[in-house]
Amino acid sequence: MYLEFILTSLIVIATPGTGALYTVVMGLSHGKGTSIVAAAGCTLGIVPHMIAAILGLAAVLATNDTAFQIVKLAGALYLLYMAISIWRDASLFSPERDRQQRSALGIIRHAVLINLFNPKLSIFFLALLPQFVSAADENAILRMTEYSLAFMVMTFVVFALYGLFAAAARDKVLSRPRLMLWIRKSLAAAFVALGLKLALAER
User: Fold this and answer.
1) Are 170 and 27 a contacting pair, CB within 8 Å?
2) pTM for the complete prediction?
3) Opening angle at CA 121, ends 160 and 108, nearest 5
């Protein structure tokens, strides 16, 4: 059962989404250390959804259309804000001396918000955990917590790998201005696409 959970989780985590994309942006723009911080921030963004699923609050998003729409639209707007920021920030993939410095706290804040405003993540936990934890289990909450923490560890590892691979390609990107511009605009477009996808998502 635990192996099935790991395989299911890895498939979901490895599928590129907003968190992975943000980690790649930070890896390309700021290098290895910053990509690790971004991966940690995206992982922390899972905590509210994990708690919501364990306490049953995710059921509200799954059944209350108004609550779902509010959180969903907030998430879509935030992704569009990220897209505009990336599009306009010409210093994003600039050399170290020309690039705007970003604090670890700021990076974590952005990463947490990206996941926080995604109601599909809460519903995912609500749908996933009961498949591996029986409601009849007297230690159900403990088991759900264990599975959720395992999911977070896997998320951090996979996202960190994404970021490290991006950081490894950073020097090649910085040496080619046209490629930098193309990547920056492509990443902005990807955030727009993910924002629109979230805005049009159904429960």
Assistant:
1) yes
2) 0.76
3) 40
Query: Could you count the other beta carbons within 10 Å of the beta carbon of residue 30?
Result: 23
Task: Answer for the pair 53, 144: CB distance below 8 angstroms, yes or no.
Answer: yes
Question: What is the C-alpha radius of gyration for the chain, rounded to an integer number of angstroms?
Answer: 18
At 39, the pLDDT band (50, 70, 90 cuts) reads: very high
Checking if the pLDDT of 142 tops 80, the result is: yes
Q: Which two tokens stand for residue 66?
A: 């108004």
Residue among 45, 21, 47, 46 nearest 35 (CA): 21
Q: Where are the domains of the chain?
A: 2-6+19-64+93-176
Locate 73 and state its tokens. Answer: 């639209």
Backbone angles phi, psi at 199, to 5 degrees: -60, -30
In the block, residue with structure tokens 């991966």: 39
Overall average pLDDT of the 181-197 stretch: 79
